[in-house]
Amino acid sequence: MRSAILSLVGGASTVLAAARGFNYGSQGNTLETYEAQFRTAQGLDTTSGWGSARLYTMIQEGTANTVISAIPAAIATNTTLLLGLWASSPQDVFNNEITALKNAINQYGSAFSDLVVGISVGSEDLYRTSPTGILSNAGTGQSPDVLVNYIGQVKSAISGTVLGSKPVGHVDTWETYTNGSNSAVVAAADFIGLDEYPYYENTEQNSVSNAKNLFFSKYDAVAGVANGKPIWITETGWPTSGPTENLAVPSVDNAETYWKAVACELISRNIPTWWYILQDSASPSFGIVQSGEQPKYDLSCPSVATSSSAAPTSSVASATMPTSAAVSTTLDISNAVPSASYAASGVTSKAAVSSAASSVASVAPSVSSAVSAASSAAGSVIASVAPSSAAGTTVMPVTTKAATSVADDGETVTIYSTTLITVTNCGSTVSDCTSTGMSTAVSAKPSVTSAAASSVVPSGGAVASGCPADINGAYQYPHLIIPVDSANPNKAYGTQYNGTVNSKVSTIFNFDIPASYAGKTCSTVFLFPQLDQLETSSYSFNDKGGFTIAVLNGVADQSTTYANAPAVAKQIGSVDSLQRGSSHTLSQDACPAGARVSFEVTSTNGLDLEWFNDYNPSPLGLYVRAC
Ligand SMILES: *[C@@H]1O[C@H](CO)[C@@H](O)[C@H](O)[C@H]1NC(C)=O
Ligand SMILES: *[C@@H]1O[C@H](CO)[C@@H](O)[C@H](O)[C@H]1NC(C)=O
Ligand SMILES: *[C@@H]1O[C@H](CO)[C@@H](O)[C@H](O)[C@H]1NC(C)=O
């Protein structure tokens, strides 16, 4: 019965799906060929929603650091992007990737950034330096240390730009993530890009019939070391031709079997996925289309309407979205690719996110999470009626419509409006439900203003003790750092890498709190190591005084000056006498999830401090820590 209800609801509205697309190499591709492939991917027979592209490099083939033509092609075709910077190269070569990234920002601005889902620094670099990679002559790789450093460089390069809020991660194979020697990469990454090929697991039971088990057992192994970071499937596929690898036999039939087992499951679980590959002329050949642009095999997933044999259910009070194929069609909505970003949306919509969003990291939204999201927005309205069951009547909340979505910190965030549906004496098929009727009882709409009011002003007072004064867990670094100068009240300094706090200058820090922090505790921490503990950063300090930190009642931007800065809403913390080699939890409260918050740091008692706010070892400066 549940399937039937979802089927009907799904037909009337949409649920937002995670980004989904294909990998696109750089060799031999031009603006025209990228555009043609992106359109092919969007128009595939028997499936839909594959409008995202994962790239391996920012550089157009054959140039030093010209922006890859996939970007204008993506803009022309409304294709979302998982960007990649090739990282198995020394610094001077990697610099070209960064230059191309910056050029893309400058050339294409928000038309570009609106499409970006995330940025991967590297691709299988750790695998290529592992014993297996070396055995397979996989090529030059990269050490975890350098990757962590490059990830930091990319975060610095995008800081304060239109890409400032995009997650920066890494792509590699499952066994590199479970290898503890690489844990610093996991720690530095905002998302875990996972390449998984049961076909190549030739020391395992890798027949196509066992491929799904193999795939998800490795996935679960990575999830076990991911520290809660979202896992995105960045490559997987099964070849239609090529050599047999142990029990894995390439064929069109087996590729279709693998697709229906793995692709359909990933769709069903709403896990961001970039399949390997749309088309190729290689051996083994993984391409799902050949010339003529039609799929080599059926790409459809089992639909809800045909699963009417699902057993009738009398109550759905504790139902979570099943991962069975029955639900996949509901999530398989082609026009539901994340498009909004914090950078592009205004304060108001961010507040809306905090009130209504249920963060969906690599899992299908559950009915219960929709309920809790809705009840946090609408309070007792939903809570008092959901979900109940009486005398052959079931009232269930169903997530029917996603108002917007945000890919931030690697998580696909969906705003649900929840509808209560009353079903009476519903049988096991769609037609049974239809004939007995169903009605939409309530639509829970989040209230923007109440969310803003409650989320933006953390309570002040006593210094907290809950979150540790470090960033060895979920944390945020500032996306905008704006000095305001009482001696130059009308000067907008724009965003800086440095915080400056002295008798004339205060600095405002903007933090974008991910919606996934909903329900967590957030603290503001100020980390102030000894100078000799710093590797990539520095500070200058006159060893006098302290500072206060206040939350502002508005959000600063590049044009903020001393004169027009948002007023202080509330002082939330202070350090009376700052000492070198100290760490401070300045404030602590419920995370203002989904909101952008501005904090102002102001000198007291003659403090004169300038620091490079940098999370590289040892972290220095102001962060928001979640716990
Ligand atoms: C584990 O990772 C380290 C660092 O990347 C690498 O040198 C080592 O070979 C890896 N070990 C295995 C068994 O893959
Ligand atoms: C681009 O795609 C998104 C998501 O599918 C859609 O909401 C948006 O309207 C599209 N924009 C254009 C210009 O087609
Ligand atoms: C940032 O502050 C550090 C420490 O005072 C200083 O060495 C560095 O030059 C500053 N950077 C900029 C761009 O002002």
TrEMBL record:
Superkingdom assignment: Eukaryota
Q: Supply the enzyme class, top level.
A: hydrolase
Q: Tell me, what is an example of a GO biological process annotation in this record?
A: cell wall organization
List the membrane topology term(s). Lipid-anchor; GPI-anchor
Mind telling me which InterPro entries this protein's record contains? Beta-glucan_modifiers (IPR050732), GH (IPR017853), Glyco_hydro_17 (IPR000490), Ubiquitin3-bd_protein_But2_C (IPR018620)
Keywords tagged on the record:
Carbohydrate metabolism, Cell membrane, Cell wall, Cell wall biogenesis/degradation, Glycoprotein, GPI-anchor, Hydrolase, Lipoprotein, Membrane, Polysaccharide degradation, Secreted, Signal
Q: Name one GO cellular component term.
A: cell surface
Q: What EC number is given for this enzyme?
A: 3.2.1.39
Briefly, what is this protein's role?
A: Glucanases play a role in cell expansion during growth, in cell-cell fusion during mating, and in spore release during sporulation. This enzyme may be involved in beta-glucan degradation and also function biosynthetically as a transglycosylase.
Give the protein's recorded name.
Answer: Probable glucan endo-1,3-beta-glucosidase eglC
| Catalytically driven reaction(s) | Hydrolysis of (1->3)-beta-D-glucosidic linkages in (1->3)-beta-D-glucans
Hey, what's the signal peptide range on this chain?
1-19
Instruction: Give the family per the record.
Output: Belongs to the glycosyl hydrolase 17 family.
Domain Ubiquitin 3 binding protein But2 C-terminal residues, every copy: 476-617
Where located? Cell membrane; Secreted, Cell wall
Query: What is the species of this protein?
Result: Aureobasidium uvarum
What one GO molecular function would you report for this record? glucan endo-1,3-beta-D-glucosidase activity
